[in-house]
Amino acid sequence: MTEASEETRHVRSAEDLLLALRDPDLEVRVALLSSIMANPQVALQFGKFQNVDLIDELIAQTFRVESTLYRHIVTAVLSAFDDPRVPPHFLRLITYYGEPDLLEVVRSRLMLEPVEPGLATYRSLVLQTDSLRHTHAAADLLSRSESLEPRLALRVSVANTLEVDQSPQIDSETVSAWIAELNGPFLREASILAEGKGQHGFVTLAARANELDRDAMIWLLRWGARTWPLDAVEVVRLGLRHEDEEVVLEALRSVETLGPSGSLFAAEAAPLAQSSSARVRALAISVGAPLDSPRQALANETEPEALAELLARLRKSEGKAAIDILVDHLGHSHYRVRIQAQTELAALGEAAQETAMRLVREGNEVQRAAGANLLLGLGKQEWLEENLLG
């Protein structure tokens, strides 16, 4: 034994050892435990006192002590013993306590033992999500097993911290388990694994997309638009009709990603241009949702983002006939609308030249600045110098 304290120097028997471990002075007990940790087998050789040996005492103390730190120290000391009583005790501990440090000691020690004796305990822990620390620990322990049923193998794959992947393919038999993981706390991990299952995996999930919650649906839309656009059409349609605004917005972004194929969704996108959500209206208009009259829509719109998108639609549909409306919006109170109006006038090029010159000569301060910028973009610097400086 080490010379950590007066008490530890006087341990000469099992009685001395056990009485010191029960000493009311915490420092005495901690010093003794440090000595035991340094020479565990030497301490064990003291044998029993009143039919209790060192292992029995340490096991009892893990359930008796009130100090979390002391319980952690006792558990760490126990983990150093290669004794048949330790693994069953640690199987109990892993279900009792959730302190991160203590749980890691228990997990690390059980990783040295065969997995089979703990299968029932690990299974119950890995399938619950009330304590994700326990879920991760159990998943690590089960990752060593090669005979897990698909549902359990999937949970172990998404929850273990060792990057072990035993996840099954996504098919008619496993898709419910995949949906459960995608709808749960392991969405990120499950989505990464799912994307590795390829086109068949996407198609299988897409057929059950109505069972996905908001975040999982958003992920599926992104995956489909990015990787499997032809197979994503029905998922996008479902997303455009979804009750959650964030899903609808992601579906509209998917329409935008699909480019010319976005015309396939005209029927679903049309009502979104009149949505009560300004974000939805603006994005729906941006991706080409059908409008009876952009002018009329502009007259009824008040939200800057939607107004800006409507100005772009107006210029595309009417060309130079939209100049009057665009000029009117150069003085809008919101910068986003002003910038869009100027951008659309610039897009008209030569068709807007006369208007730009008129604005420089006759407009207010904002209009003169916009007109000057337009003319600079058209290469009319000499005209500007003559009319502004001359």
Comma- or semicolon-separated keywords:
390 residues; mainly alpha; Leucine-rich Repeat Variant; 26 helices; 65% helix; disordered N terminus
Itemize the secondary structure elements and their pairings.
Blueprint: H1 6-9, H2 14-21, H3 26-38, H4 40-44, H5 54-64, H6 68-79, H7 86-96, H8 100-110, H9 119-127, H10 132-142, H11 150-159, H12 175-182, H13 187-195, H14 198-206, H15 214-227, H16 233-240, H17 245-257, H18 266-269, H19 278-286, H20 294-300, H21 304-318, H22 323-328, H23 335-347, H24 353-362, H25 365-377, H26 381-389
Commentary on this structure:
The protein is an all-alpha fold. The chain has a domain at 317-390: Alpha Horseshoe (Leucine-rich Repeat Variant), CATH 1.25.10. It contains 26 helices and no strands. Helix 16 packs antiparallel against helix 17. The chain is elongated and about 105 Å long. The chain starts with 5 loop residues before the first helix and ends with a helix.
